[in-house]
Amino acid sequence: MRFAEKIIESLCVSTRQPMPGGIKPPDYKQETLRSRLMPTPIPEELILPLAQHGNSRSRPLVKPGDKVLKYQAIACSDVTGIVDLHAPTSGIVLAIENFPIPSPVDKESKCILLKKDGLDAEIDHNTLANYRSLSYLELIKLIEQAGIFGLGGAEYPSRLKLKSGKNKKIKLLIINAVECEPYITADEALLREKAQFVVQGAEILQAACMAEHCVIVIESNKADAIKALEQTQLNSSIELFKIAAKYPTGSEKQLIQAVTSKEVPSGKYPTDIGILMHNAGTAYAVYQAVIEGKPCISRITTLAGGSLKTPKNFEALIGTPIDYLLNLCGLNQQTHTMTLMGGPLMGVKLARTDVPILKTTNCIIAASEDKFPPASIELACIRCGFCADVCPASLLPQQLYLYAKCQNFSELISHGLNDCIECGACAYVCPSNIPLIQYYRASKDELASQLENKISSEQWKQRFQHHQYRVKKDKEARRDSKRRETIKPTELTLKISPPIFSREAAKKEIAAAVVRVRKRKAQFIASSGGENTETDK
Amino acid sequence: MEAFIENQFVRFVLLISTAVFLAYRLLLVSKYLCKEYLKQKSMVDRINSYLPQTQCGRCGYKGCLPYARAISQGDMINKCPPGGISTILNLVELLNEPGLRLNPAHGVFQPPLTAVIREEECIGCTKCIQACPVDAILGAPKLMHTVITDECTGCDLCIEPCPVDCIDLVLLPTSSPRYWLNPIIQNSRFNTLETN
Amino acid sequence: MTSSPQSPPFQRTRRSTNNIMLQVVAGCIPGISIATWYFGYGVLLNVLLSIVFALCFEALAISLRSRHIQTTLADNSALVTAVLFGLTIPPGLPWWLLFLGIGFAILIAKHIYGGLGQNPFNPAMCGYLFLLLSFPSAMTSWHIPNDALSSVQEFAPTSLSGLQQSLHLTFPFLSHNTLNPIEFIDGLAMATPLIESKMAGTSKLLTAWQTDQSLFARSSETAWELVNIGYFLGGAFLLFQRVISWHIPVAIITTVMTISILFYSPGGYAIYGTPYLHLFGSATMIGAFFIATDPVSAATTNKGKLVYGVIIGLSIYGVRAWGSYLDSIAIAVLLGNFLAPLLDHFLRPRIYGHKKGVLGPSDMGGGSNKVIDS
Fold it and tell me: How many helices (H) and strands (E) does chain B have?
């Protein structure tokens, strides 16, 4: 009761409005929670992709043949120079070239190939006893030097989120421990065993972004994790908030609505309404970075699925090949049909498994035929409306499907395609097996390229108008100069005064000329409205 | 129960409340419609916003705005190859006209193109600079000419004037490949209007 | 690229279109059985014959459209159309009228528009209305066979001779008499059950209960009320199974109840009867739960469904009271189908992160700049 409810009361005006829609799929989480969290044995070779986060590029700080120590910085951002990749173990850099990376199609990217030397020697790093002695800027600096990115899935640089606290007042920091998607138990396993570190990390984050309040949100059916967290609540100011288990409550916008009843306006960010959200795994990484001085080199990954003999959670090093982890869990090749990175509702089907784990990989599912039947054929939409009942953003998926099929983009925008979070709940309940998410992604791609076209056509229109203006001016100038040639240079030349060489006068002349040109250009554009005046070429 | 139903007062109250509710809803509807009506732009501007602004002249008019004017006065909507199928479909929806295939006399649908000058062969005659409708070619007499790719619309008006024929139209490299294809395109056996 | 990788989600619910359609048919079973008990095997015969003809027509249409026959028949949509059509037409109708009606429903009201999911109008109701307008006298008389030995008061339509007579009514060529075959059958020809005397009176069910008669005896004339209770139970089953949503049935029932309260006058015209009899003395229940909730032709947003139900309710009462057709479900549902796309366009839910629009769709013009305080 207490403080958490009071925070919520202060932030929202009326009764709590929970997330609309949502589904309750069977969660299959028990198998992976049976065993304790274990650090993984280190594989022979680690593949560390350089361009981890969207389109940003990283520049390697080492070259092939260099010996590196554990926690040593090995890559930094091309643009800002901030270190974003650290060596997960000590060893020797074998090569820096293109390797396959996790993707539904065959895709390669530049990676650092690191071969371990078995020593696991660490570089010197400082530990910190009391983080409260540092200012928030120093905390943010420590966090960014540790290469921490949003470990919840979006991989947004954490320092940028925290820095936004400077300009906009952050009232509430939410630590997202809601793992609503089936099979994934990474955050739950982390909280079960290392709850106090997560809470300390949350406190550090709160100090770094200067938030007034901080809550940890968790699903009410995660009993062990809640018990571990409640034991740490006694000596901390961070509140625990329990919500009912429903997919996709863990999505950022939906969780904000479920916890505070406020909605993030379309096209804006949560910081615009004073709320910041971080994943529980990120909080743990922040604790390790600030207090223990260890940069982000590993993450908790769940390995699950019917083809594994012993599904479990691993504290896996970034860059571990996925097939290495699958073999550690006893992969059954006969029943294994496909590998998913992520959960069954929002995950990505991997084209190959000899690819590395990234900072955002929270789950690998080795799927078997019984729980993951192949896609059935798409039948006609019977307009039943089950999809609209489960959409967490209150969209109309059946209408979006209709307009995506006939590629009617104005109606797609009007029905809110850009607000779709692609959670997969609509396609999950569709009785006609329609791949709704594929339609929406294809339409969003098409809309994005149409927007690009619109921007460039606006640009071309401006240039065309300027081109017409310039041609007209040139023509007039030629006509005037021709006329001036026919006049005899008699009295007029005597009347012309000698040029005054003075800076101020020259500047004044130039300024006056610029004003004249601007006025004339505006007049021209307004009067003719872009009328074509090219009569000769 | 029946006495309650028969009561004239109850029925009167029910009738009045229904009437008031309906009147209020109708008022909101009419206010919304008036607001939408007042937001409209002129027809020529709206047609012009659906044209791709490549200013290529393949439609027979010198630029996109004159073609937009002509359409508003009744010209055919299927004369714009750079606009792609989306231009024709948008104009169909705007003008409530039947859809037409692209008139082959004006060209064919093509992916986005850009002009590239082969610099070894350029003689610096400035003919292409004068021809470009958006001033996307940089150069001066007897000096090297080059096309600014970001500004080039792919209209191919510079190809003809070049006396040494050193300008090529090449495909515009796309920024990032898109995996997700609309299933209707993927599964359809008949692709009626689009030829990509 | 010619193909995409498989898109998420990779798991789905087990419920699919054919399951849903089968559950709708299952919901009709209580109503069908009670109707067969009272009105004879004609009801069952109509339903079975409709199913057979519907499947044949569906197979014909699909083969003409070069699609896969087995997959399309497996989605059971023709089954549902056939069952609902068979329940609304009177028993004792000759088989060729049934053939024409179901042919119109499947071929023209469904496949001409593009097949499953594309028809703007309810196919069963289109077929019914086609027959009603083309063969009005055949469609407004119910032929219920007598037991040949007993008197008219105690008729037993479900005996073996009743079955024989139902077959003879439906397949006139079976009878040996070359004269008008109907005359040979000593049947009870009644007008459509929604006759005025029923409306004017009180509930027959209540009367039977008060006078300690068997509720299921045919002489107590509790037929229609029990049939409607059967459909109501079937509809409740569908609601419980979450096959249909509550909006349309609740809206229809509430509207019919409200407007019949408004116009109730016990001493006046019989059609201005009590709300109970308007709901349970005629075909309102099957209309509210099974016919109007056909997902393809109904409105699809929740607010739209409520208004759709209101329109249908008003039309049911209006056509009944002031129009010339006593059984108005088909006309009312078709009227609702006309307006459904308009309702879908305007009555949309407010999207997360947007302001509330005046008519329902959010103000998408420039996006919302204000924080939503709920």
Answer: 7, 4
Mention every residue, 6+ apart, whose C-beta is less than 8 A from residue C113.
C119, C120
* Cα–Cα distance list, B138 to B126, B146, C157 (Å): 9, 5, 95
Under the banding of pLDDT at 50, 70 and 90, the label for residue C191 is very low
Between A171 and A499, residue with greater pLDDT: A171
Task: Quote the CA–CA distance of A441 and A188 in Å, as a whole number.
Answer: 30
CA-CA-CA-CA torsion for C70, C76, C81, C82, nearest 10 degrees?
A: 70
pLDDT: which is higher, A478 or C184: A478
Question: Is the pLDDT score of A15 beyond 60?
Answer: no
| Structural contact between residues A286 and A158, judged by C-beta atoms closer than 8 angstroms | yes
Q: Which secondary-structure segment (H or E) carries C189?
A: strand C187-191
Residues of A in contact with B196 (CB under 8 A): none
What is the ipTM score, two decimals? 0.85
Question: Is A501 a residue whose pLDDT tops 90?
Answer: no
> What's the pLDDT score for residue B193?
39
**Cβ-contact C369, C354 below 8 angstroms:** no
Half-sphere exposure (CA, 13 Å, Cβ side) for A533? 20
Question: Which of A301-305, A422-426, A487-491, C229-233 shows the lowest mean pLDDT across its residues?
Answer: A487-491
Tell me, what's the pLDDT at C366? 34
Of the candidates A33, A488, A495, the one whose C-alpha atom is nearest the C-alpha of residue A221 is A33
Helix axes C77-88, C41-64, angle to 10 degrees: 140
Q: What is the pLDDT of residues C149-172, one digit of tens each?
A: 344 445 556 667 667 777 877 787
Calculate how close chain B gets to C109, using CA atoms only, in Å.
25
Give the pair of three-digit tokens for residue A385. Answer: 């409306």
Nearest alpha carbon to residue C330 among C122, C46, C82: C122
Six token digits for residue C174: 């079976």
The residue of C15, C80, C351, C352 whose CB has the most chain A CBs within 10 angstroms, and thus the best one to mutate to test that interface, is C352
CA distance C321 to A198: 71
Q: Are A252 and A277 in contact (CB under 8 A)?
A: yes
Q: Evaluate whether C84 touches C21 at the Cβ level (below 8 Å).
A: no
- Residue A165 has a pLDDT of 63
For residue C311 the two structure tokens come to 């329109």
Q: Would you say C364 and B38 are in contact if contact means Cβ atoms under 8 Å apart?
A: no
Write the DSSP string, A6-45.
HHHHHH-SSS--PPSS-B------HHHHSS--EEPPPPSE
Q: CA-CA distance, B9 to B3, in Å (whole number)?
A: 11
Q: Which residues pair with C40 in a beta bridge?
A: none
CB-count exposure of residue A134 (10 Å: 0-12, 13-18, 19+): middle
Task: Please indicate whether, in this complex, the C-beta atoms of B180 and C275 are within 8 angstroms of each other.
Answer: no
Check residues A496 and A299 and name the one with the higher pLDDT: A299
For chain B, the residues whose C-beta falls within 8 A of a C-beta of chain C are: 2, 5-6, 11, 14-15, 28-29, 31-32, 177, 179-181, 183, 186
Whether residue C6 and residue A349 make contact (CB cut-off 8 A), yes or no, is: yes
Q: Closest to C350 (Cβ–Cβ): which among A376, A394, A430? A: A394
